[in-house]
Sequence to fold (143 residues):
Amino acid sequence: MSLETPHDPGNLVRQYFGLLSGAPIERAEAILADRFVFSHPPLTPAGGSVGRAAFLTNILGPTRAAFPDMTFQVHALLVEGDAACARWTMMATHRGPYMGVTATENAVRVNGINIFHTSDGRIGATWVARDNVGLLRQLGVSL
Fold:
């Protein structure tokens, strides 16, 4: 029997990856804190972050447009107190402009790790480390 509740860090992380994988944007309000902080260079300023509205509008929206079939597989999820760490793979097809690259129709598989902080039943922050070089190579960019 699981003692997990909808607001447990592990469940919130699974809901977050569901949001990235196409769940309705309206779900963000229930899982992301009002002062949510998202850090993911090069999508955010170097050493910096953006808030919830900017994440949804300037990052998630364009990413979904570029990769409309984007799904995530979480391979490992570690939870300790109000913190969690997830190792994941994104699978998608590049169907729109992304990071300055026009649509290629290439299928991509990209690995990454997120570290999450939760509080008051929502995700307060996440820091992303993704294989950006591998992604760009799969999109045909010469580095």
